[in-house]
Structures are given as structure tokens and as C-alpha cells.
Design a protein that fits this description.
The complex is a heterodimer of chains A (about 120) and B (about 750). Chain A is of the alpha/beta class and about 120 residues long. Helix content of chain A is about 15%, strand content about 40%. Chain A has 1 helix and 10 strands. The longest helix of chain A has 20 residues. Chain B is about 50% helix and about 20% strand. In chain B, the strands form 5 sheets. In chain B, strands 14-26-25-24-15-22-23 form a 7-stranded mixed β-sheet, sandwiched between helices. The chains are: A alpha/beta (about 120), B alpha+beta (about 750). Chains A and B meet through α1, β7 and β8 of A and α3, α4, α6, α9 and α10 of B.
Chain lengths: ~120, ~750
């Protein structure tokens, strides 16, 4: 029983570490390569994207998930809300952004991505 | 501008729309330029349609650049219109729905018989070798179902997991996975488990996958209805337009209409793009955009907007805004943006959902541990059931859906009533307004003053002479009331005559020389300053002021000649709309530049007790601040042009538009109809939406807060109650459906009849 309890506590610790404490991967830099953000299976891939500050940037999205939530991507800070047609690449132009981290997500925040402007 | 770039470079033919090609010689120039590009096999221009068809493997950008280089503009015909996007979305939704329903049938096909068997008392335990064989077969069947009907949950869960993310898929995958793995352990190693714990839960796995897919499918259907309003707006766009090209009228697709094209509209046609009437007159039904039921008369030089309906006459008009620039396109994009923005009330749910799934996973583990440590026999079976049920019943989706669904319907509903809400924050604040400042001119009143009285003081002059003199001097003045006098003279076929030595005296009036006579025209201050005797006419002027009219004195050669009174008529439904606001407990305050007497008279007429009179345009914002300092949540309503700073400062700025003027940047909410009822409607819709969001959030919170402990088995020690994981699956599937359905109830909301 002792071992089972320890395993349980260890699992809890793992959950806390994996979902909350872990530092996210390095962001994908759009300056070095052109990328397409795939919208599928509950995530944006890649979901951390680095772009240059003080420049107009555009991001290319390709939605593969038929779920209604994936159909819209929102950049709340810039009041951008765009429909993503299924299986079609869509370019979304972003305004010149000051440095910082901005999130983009679907209306229900199931899909979440981060835009790192440097 | 966003564009689709679906393998255009690989297509062999592509079509571009050319702008700025005004003569036939342009055709050759464009064709030669295009053919000169490496990779272009052929280029053929249709001059009538102003389109060019290019054959060859060249990117569209290159083609456009080359056309621009020789002085024309080009754009793609592939730009997806809202209409196409909507169709695509519907097709995609349909496909998604059908796929889900197939999965529902697959999963329930096994789940339901098993479920009936277990309810009917069939043993779900593994004792004999034959039983093991049968259950192994069912277990494998169940695995197939998990693959065919529930693959998306497992793939989604895994992909999120490697990205350090967790969502609804994670919970369903873990819940059904736990139940299945435990059941398979029972099948393979029954001896490793206590006798009472040798129970299989394959029916739970299949049923949960089936029910959750069913919930998702029904949700897709219900969601489709939430965007009804935007569909209706998009549906207002005409598909084709009849334009005059080379002296011939031809029908072309709406995307091909260019700026400054001449467009013919026949009775019963929709107006295809925005423009100005060049020839003919007609009446146009604008109700679909503004909510104004009466058709509007249009003559030459009047503006008309896309999406409205031509009722009676045939007109020719010049296109002034096309494509994404039309008022309708702007309304659509504004409504869409607002529908996807979130009011502050939704932020708490966002914060919670960020932690929700891992917290539920931890709860499931804790619950299992508690059962294992303290539970009765078979503790292991209880632990598995409670962990599975906790994972399944928790519904992050209901929380996530609560706010966006209601905003979607509420903003759409408002748009149907001719009320454009900029964003979720404006929607929420509008529902809490405690004080409303109404600018008088153009908001409460028509904003078009008329001459109401001409009182002759010196019998030497006729009314005609007075009006000639007054209109002559006022034709040079920029005062808002001056136009009323000029219009009134023109109506009586009196033409303004030449004047000289014109001088405007700020805050007083004007003076000039007219046919050798000296004219003074203005207020009482001007007369007193010039020593003009007014005698009993002061009382007469006062009487006019008491009737909410503005009296002005005309003195000829330093002697009072007449009083001319001008008044701005109150809109016919202002009084009723103000009553509606007051009935909602809103403190209504009128703001005007008029003198106190006139202002009070108007206020009395419309039933408003508080007045800010004699307010200079630059002081309007200060009056907003004054009320805010008293703790009021202030709404400010004006025309959005002269009072932009006040609208911006107010908690919610309302711009009362004329027709379909949507380009009012300073306003949080734009009323496309001139009536103040739009204001009361806007507040009513925002209140109803906020109430709906609160119901949704409350429901979603309570559901999770009550459901999770119940699933963990807190009721077991007291009542011996343990929740079945299948029921948890059903509850979870239908909780998000409930949220969407409740939001859909808003569609039935009607602002008070008027």
C-alpha cells in the first residue's frame, strides 16, 4: 500500500512539473525559415513562434481539424479574428507589433499558441 | 488583406481583375507585359469584364507586380468572399457532423448491448476460462472501437501531452483508457486481483466514446444556429451587378465591379455595391441594415449602400466603394470581430480553464488513493471507477463555451436590430450603464432646424423682406441655425441677395450692409450692445424660448425689425425611447449648447429632468467626467463627429448614425438607425446577453464543482451512492450542449415592442 501511495504522489508531482513548471521548448523563429502553423488534434504546431519586432509579419495557418473550435483563430491584443477554412492555407497579416509575448487562440482557448515578438 | 494561396503557382490558368484600364489600347499593353514574363504561355484580356486570363506556371504575385509596373492595378479573383467562406464552413461542419455520427453508431453499437446486459444483471466478472475468452474478444472489439470511433481523443491527448498541454481530449483519453486497461488486466490476470474486483468496464469505454461524440455532433448543429445573424448579413450581398461598360449594360460577378463603374439597378434588385445615384429616383428599403422599417427616398446625388433593396424605380449609380470597402462588408467584419471578442466577465473562466485539466487529473489520483487506503472491498474496483468517473465528468468545454457562445448570439442579435457593438467589453459595460447623456442636436432632435415663427416688430417691413434680409446675411454665416433660415427662404422662393462688410461677432451674431441698410442679426446680447430698444419684444422672445425655440433679433438701421424663431424638431419617437431608458433605472441627462431657457423647454417636452445647457463643444467630455466622478457608469450618445472626445471618454460611447454610416471610430456602439429606440434596444440586448453568460458560467461552474466530488464518491459513505462512469459520460456530453442551447435561447430575445 505504501508503494501505491508513493506512486500516486509521484504521479501528482509529475503532473505539476509537466504541465505547470516545465519551461516550454524554444520558439520557432520565422526569420530563419518560413513556417506553416498546422491546426490539428487540439494544438497549433508549432505553438511558440518568434517574429521580429517593428515589422509587419504574416503567419500561414493550415487547419486540418474539422472541429468547429479550430475554425477561428483570435489574436486578442490586435483585435484580429480570422476564419480558417478547412485544408486550405490561409495567410494572416499582423500589424507592426511592439516587443512582448502575445497569445493567439481559438474562441474557447482549447488551442493556444504564443507569439514572441523580439 | 488576407488571401488564400492554395497552390496558385501550380495552376495553369489564373484570372486577375484589372483596375484602371480605361481604353481598348490598354488591352494590348497589359497582354504584352504579361506575355513578356518568363513562364507565361498566354495572356488574354477581356476588356468588357476587365479581367485577364493568364496561362502558364507563374505565381500570382509576379503577375500583379508586372501589371502594377505598367501603371494598372490588379487583384486576384481567388480572394475568398465571406459568402464562399461561409459555404466552405458549412460543408466542413456537415462533414464533421457526419463523421461524428458514424463514430456514435459504431461506439453505441457495442456499448448499448453491453450496457443492457449489465443492467439486466448479466455477470460482468471474469471467473471461468470461457468467460475470459468471451471478454477478451469483447475487449479487442472495444479496442477497435476506441481506434475507429475515438482515435481523435487519443491522438489529440497525446499531441497535447507532448506539448505540455492538456485539454478535454486528455481527460476522455485517460478516463476511457483507465477503464479499458483495468478491464484487460482483469481478463489477462484475474488471479492477481481480489475476487470481488474482477469486474470489466468495457461497456463504459464504448458508451463514453459514443455519448461524447454524440454530444459533439449535436453541439456542431447547435453552434451553426448561433451564427445565424452573420449568415443573414452575408446573405444580403448581391451575387451579380449590371454595369455599363462600353455603352452596353452587362451582368458581371460582384467581385468584378470596379470603383467608379456605372451600375444599373432595377426595381426589386439588391444594391450590389455602395455608390451615389447619378440618374433616376427610387425608394430603397434599408431595414435589413438599419432596422428602420420605412423605405427611404433616393434622388440624384444621394448615397446608397450595398445589401439594401431597391423598391420602386430604376436608377443608375456610380460605384464609390466596392469589395471589402462597402458599408455592408465593414459591418460584417465588425460583427464577426465583435462576436469573437471576449467581455471581461469571461476572463475568470479563461484563468480557470488554464489549470482545470491538470487539477482534475490530480483529483482523480487523490480520489483513487483515498479509495485504496480507506475504501471498502473491492477497494481497487472502487478506485478505478472513481478515477474514471472524475476524469470523464469534468467538462472544461462547458466553461470554455459559456461566454463565447452567448457573445456570438448577442452581438448577432444586436446587429439584426441595427446596433453594431464593437467588442465584448462594450457589450458588458453597456449592460451596467447607470447614467446616459444624450446630445440634443441630431440625437434627440432631427438635427435639421426649421424656421417656426417670424414676428414683425416694425410694420414698415413685409415678411418677405425680413426673410430676404435675414437669409442674405445668414447665407454667409457658418452658424448651425443659419442654414435653417436660408432653407426657409429658398422654400418660399426667396433668393439671398448680395451683402457687404459682413462680420461675425462670436457669441452674439452677425452684422453686414444690405442694399444700403445696416443689418444686425443675433441674440439679445447683440441688440443690447448696440443700444437697440427691444421693449415688449423681450417678453415675446422669452415666450418663444419657453416653447423650446431659439429666437433671433433682426435690426435694420439700428432699429428692431423682427424676431425670427428657429427650432429643431424633436424626433417622433424620442420621448417614448427616453421613457424606456428611464424605466430601466437609467438617469437620463440632456446635453446642449443652447441657452438654458431653450434647453429647459426641450427637456420638459421630452421628460428629462437634468440638463447640461450652454455647453461648448470642447466641454462635452468634461460633463462626462463630471458624472463619472459621481460614481456613475456613463453612456454618451452623440453623432460621433463633433463629440468624439466625449464618446471616447464615456464608459460606453454610442454614435447615432444616419443610415449606414458605420465608419464611426470613436464609438463603442453604433446605432445605424436614427431613432433613440436603438439605444434602449442596445442596452436591452446587452443586459440579456450578460444574463445569459452568467447563467452559462454559473451552470458550468456548478456542474463541475458538484459533479467532480460526486464522481469521486463523496456521497458513498453517507448514502452508498456511487456514480456510474457511463452516466458521467452522458452528463459531460450534454453539459456543453446545454450551454450552447442556452446561448441559442438568446436568439428568441426581442427588445420591447415599439
Amino acid at each position: 500500500m505504501m508503494i501505491i501511495n508513493l506512486i500516486g504522489l509521484l504521479l501528482i508531482a509529475l503532473i505539476v512539473w509537466w504541465f505547470w513548471l516545465y519551461n516550454p521548448d524554444k520558439a520557432v523563429d520565422t526569420n530563419t525559415k518560413k513556417i506553416t502553423i498546422i491546426v490539428d488534434n487540439g494544438i497549433y504546431q508549432p505553438s511558440r513562434i518568434k517574429v521580429e519586432a517593428g515589422k509587419k509579419v504574416s503567419l500561414q495557418f493550415l487547419r486540418k481539424d474539422g472541429g468547429p473550435c479550430a475554425a477561428t483563430v483570435i489574436f486578442p491584443e490586435f483585435e484580429i479574428s480570422e476564419e480558417l477554412p478547412l485544408d486550405t492555407t490561409r495567410v494572416i497579416d499582423l500589424p507592426v507589433m511592439p516587443s512582448g509575448e502575445y497569445s493567439f487562440h481559438c474562441p474557447m482557448k482549447m488551442y493556444i499558441g504564443t507569439l514572441i515578438v523580439e | 488583406m488576407n488571401k488564400l494561396t492554395d497552390n496558385i503557382a501550380n495552376d495553369n490558368t489564373q484570372e486577375l481583375i484589372i483596375e484602371g484600364a480605361s481604353c481598348a489600347s490598354c488591352v494590348g499593353k497589359i497582354e504584352i507585359a504579361l506575355k513578356g514574363i518568363e513562364g507565361v504561355d498566354n495572356a488574354e484580356m477581356n476588356f468588357a469584364l476587365r479581367t485577364v486570363l493568364v496561362t502558364g506556371k507563374v505565381g500570382e504575385d509576379t503577375l500583379i507586380k508586372n501589371i502594377e509596373a505598367i501603371g494598372y492595378n490588379a487583384k486576384s479573383t481567388n480572394e475568398t468572399s465571406d459568402d464562399q467562406l461561409l459555404d466552405e464552413k458549412e460543408v466542413a461542419d456537415q462533414k464533421y457532423y457526419r463523421r461524428l455520427m458514424t463514430q456514435v453508431w459504431i461506439a453505441l453499437g457495442l456499448g448499448v448491448p453491453l450496457m443492457i446486459y449489465s443492467i439486466a444483471g448479466g455477470p460482468m466478472t471474469v471467473e471461468t476460462t470461457i468467460e475470459r475468452g468471451i471478454w477478451l474478444f469483447i475487449g479487442l472489439l472495444c479496442a477497435a472501437i476506441m481506434y475507429f470511433a475515438g482515435k481523435h481523443f487519443y491522438v489529440g491527448a497525446w499531441k497535447s501531452f507532448v506539448n505540455h498541454n492538456a485539454n478535454m481530449d486528455t481527460l476522455i483519453a485517460l478516463g476511457t483508457g483507465t477503464a479499458w486497461i483495468y478491464s484487460m488486466i482483469v481478463v489477462f490476470f484475474p488471479m492477481a486481483l481480489p475476487e470481488m474486483a474482477r469486474h470489466v468496464y468495457f461497456e463504459a469505454t464504448a458508451m463514453i466514446i459514443g455519448l461524447i461524440n454524440l454530444g459533439l455532433a449535436l453541439e456542431v448543429k447547435a453552434r451553426g444556429r448561433t451564427s445565424e445573424a452573420i449568415k443573414r448579413l452575408i446573405g444580403l450581398q448581391a451575387k451579380t451587378a449590371r454595369v455599363v461598360r462600353d455603352k452596353k449594360e452587362i451582368d458581371i460577378a460582384i467581385e468584378q465591379v470596379l470603383l467608379n463603374d456605372f451600375v444599373r439597378v432595377r426595381p426589386g434588385d439588391k444594391i450590389p455595391v455602395d455608390g451615389v445615384v447619378i440618374q433616376g429616383h427610387t425608394s430603397i428599403d434599408e431595414s435589413m441594415l438599419t432596422g428602420e422599417p420605412m423605405p427611404v427616398e433616393k434622388v440624384e446625388e444621394d448615397e446608397i449602400v450595398a445589401g439594401t433593396l431597391n423598391k420602386s424605380g430604376s436608377i443608375l449609380f456610380k460605384a464609390t466603394r466596392v469589395g471589402k470597402d462597402t458599408a455592408l462588408a465593414q459591418i460584417i467584419s465588425m460583427v464577426k470581430r465583435a462576436q469573437n471578442s471576449k467581455p471581461p466577465i469571461g476572463r475568470l473562466a479563461d484563468v480557470i480553464s488554464a489549470y482545470f485539466v491538470p487539477v482534475i487529473m490530480i483529483t482523480a489520483i487523490v480520489s483513487a488513493l483515498v479509495w485504496l487506503n480507506f475504501g471498502p472491498n473491492p477497494a481497487l474496483a472502487f478506485a478505478v471507477v472513481s478515477a474514471t468517473t472524475v476524469l470523464i465528468i469534468a467538462c472544461p468545454c462547458a466553461l470554455g463555451l459559456a461566454t463565447p457562445m452567448s457573445v456570438m448570439v448577442g452581438v448577432g442579435k444586436a446587429a439584426e436590430a441595427g446596433v453594431l457593438i464593437r467588442n465584448g467589453e462594450a457589450l458588458q459595460t453597456a449592460s451596467k450603464i447607470t447614467a446616459m447623456i444624450l446630445d440634443k442636436t441630431g440625437t434627440i432632435t432631427e438635427g435639421a432646424p426649421k424656421v417656426t415663427d417670424v414676428i414683425i416688430a416694425d410694420k414698415a417691413y413685409t415678411e418677405k423682406y425680413i426673410l430676404t434680409a435675414a437669409s442674405s446675411i445668414e447665407s454667409r454665416s457658418e452658424h448651425p441655425l443659419a442654414q435653417a433660415i436660408v432653407d426657409s427662404a429658398i422654400e418660399q422662393q426667396i433668393d439671398p441677395e448680395n451683402i457687404s462688410d459682413f462680420q461675425a461677432i462670436a457669441g452674439h451674431g452677425v452684422q453686414a450692409q444690405f442694399n444700403g441698410h445696416h443689418l444686425l442679426f443675433g441674440n439679445q446680447k447683440l441688440m443690447l450692445k448696440n443700444g437697440i430698444q427691444l421693449n415688449e419684444f423681450v417678453a415675446k422672445a422669452q415666450q418663444l424660448a419657453d416653447e423650446a425655440k431659439t429666437p433671433m433679433y433682426l435690426a435694420i438701421d439700428k432699429k428692431l425689425a423682427a424676431i425670427i424663431a428657429v427650432s429643431d424638431p424633436i424626433k417622433k419617437d424620442s420621448i417614448e425611447a427616453i421613457k424606456r431608458l428611464q424605466a430601466n433605472g437609467i438617469r437620463v441627462v440632456m446635453l446642449t449648447g443652447d441657452n438654458r431657457a431653450t434647453a429647459n423647454a426641450v427637456a420638459k417636452k421630452i421628460g428629462v429632468k437634468e440638463v447640461f445647457a450652454e455647453v461648448l463643444p470642447e466641454d462635452k467630455a468634461n460633463k462626462v467626467a463630471e458624472l463619472q466622478a459621481k460614481g456613475e457608469i456613463v453612456g454618451m450618445t452623440g453623432d460621433g463627429i463633433n463629440d468624439a472626445p466625449a464618446l471616447a471618454l464615456a464608459n460606453v460611447g454610442f454614435a447615432i448614425g444616419t443610415g449606414t454610416d458605420v465608419a464611426i471610430e470613436s464609438a463603442d456602439i453604433t446605432l445605424m438607425r436614427g431613432s433613440l429606440h436603438g439605444l434602449a434596444d442596445a442596452i436591452a440586448v446587452s443586459k440579456a446577453t450578460l444574463r445569459n453568460i452568467k447563467q452559462n458560467l454559473f451552470g458550468a461552474f456548478i456542474y463541475n464543482v458538484a459533479g467532480v466530488p460526486f464522481a469521486a464518491g463523496v456521497l458513498y459513505p453517507f448514502f452508498g451512492l456511487m456514480l456510474n462512469p457511463v452516466i458521467a459520460g452522458a452528463a459531460m456530453a450534454f453539459s456543453s450542449l446545454t450551454v450552447v442551447s442556452n446561448a441559442n435561447r438568446l436568439r428568441l430575445f426581442k427588445p420591447q415592442e415599439h
